[in-house]
Design a protein that fits this description.
Layout: E1 5-10, H1 13-24, E2 27-28, E3 37-41, E4 47-52, E5 69-72, H2 76-88, E6 98-100, E7 103-110, E8 113-120
Parallel strand pairs: 1-4, 5-8
Antiparallel strand pairs: 2-3, 3-4, 6-7, 7-8
């Protein structure tokens, strides 16, 4: 069984759509993108739904402190390349890529979502 979609509540759907298309290779599946909801997909079939936070029935606008989404890349070089691309694009990055437990990566926030970028650390022999 595979997790095949995720619905994220965001402050600004058009900005979030552009962000995930630009940095994470998602493609918009909406015939008419709008500021309320956007459906994105990626090459492996995963679907990311972006929903404006104003649609939250109970008015919640924040995630729990430790909630985050993660992208696991195939090498430390790819982590650094994405870090540099995000930085060049003006994305605020709170930390440099570094060894974190058994991975190499970094965390940052986009709107109200914490995002982790990581890869396995090559074992030392």
């Amino acid at each position: 069984m595979n997790l095949n979609h995720l619905n994220l509540s965001v402050q600004d759907v058009p900005a979030a759509r552009i962000f995930f298309e630009t940095y994470f290779d998602f493609k918009c599946d909406d015939s008419k993108p709008n500021d309320t909801l956007s459906v994105l997909s990626c090459a492996n079939g995963f679907v990311l739904v972006l929903m404006n936070e104003r649609l939250n029935e109970n008015g919640n606008k924040t995630y729990p402190d430790a909630f985050h989404i993660g992208f696991f890349l195939d090498s430390q070089d790819h982590v650094i390349t994405l870090f540099d691309k995000l930085k060049a694009g003006g994305v605020h990055l709170e930390q440099q890529p570094q060894k974190i437990r058994r991975t190499f990566g970094f965390y940052f926030h986009f709107q109200t979502v914490m995002i982790e970028i990581g890869s396995q650390v090559k074992s030392e022999q």
